[in-house]
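ENCODED BACKBONE
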Amino acid sequence: MFSPINTILTASLLTLTTLTSVVKAQGDLSALNNITSLTGTWSSGSGGVQTGGSFCNPQNFSFTYPTTTGISYSFTDDGHFEEAQYRYNANPADPRCITAFILWQHGRYQLNNNGSLSLFPFSADGRIQVQDPCAAVTNLITYYDQMVMFQDWGIQVDSIKASYALQLNAFDGKPLPPLYLVANPPNMLPTVILTGVNATGQASKRSLDEDEEVEKLQKRSGAISERGVGSVQAVAGLIGAGLLMMTGLMGL
């Protein structure tokens, strides 16, 4: 027979095992185990960077800078995502030339049969601002459209923060910083195309009044707004592996 002490210890061990279990997306793509568990807003570190309207306004090409660096992802249970990042890249060759970038995009996500997670952004809506004191153009705002694939992902309970923690592993297996659940339902902008040509085929006001908005933006922030594939490629080359490796994070 179990003594009262043994019963209490057994119950405690079962509870601890449950709280520390990891939910992995490894072939089990049921809504109960995957989509529902992903739903919410997840943020690294202290939660200073979060998705939603307080981070980016894609219609007027503007960001509200957080007080700390970090990354954030939000997911809905019907297949939409939102991404926000504010980070620094160090320059070992010249410590004065630290590059700061802030980016936002949203779109659809897909759970794949091999356990990976793919993000497919709405190409017209993504925005990125890069600040490089050593570049010819020190402050650049442009479109951002980067498809993302995570090799796998898992959710566990962080006993220190008393919060669910989402671990995303990049396409090459390198882990991102853990992301903690900060809101459910998620904090997100509307999960539709917000700029450019919308789903009805109509041009948005942002496209029709683009020149006027760019002029206002330049007067307001001093940033130069670039458009076209060339500018996106230039930004991608500038931040390089920093987006993929998630290294050099400050304040996470």
User: Anything to note?
Assistant: The chain is about 20% helix and 30% strand.
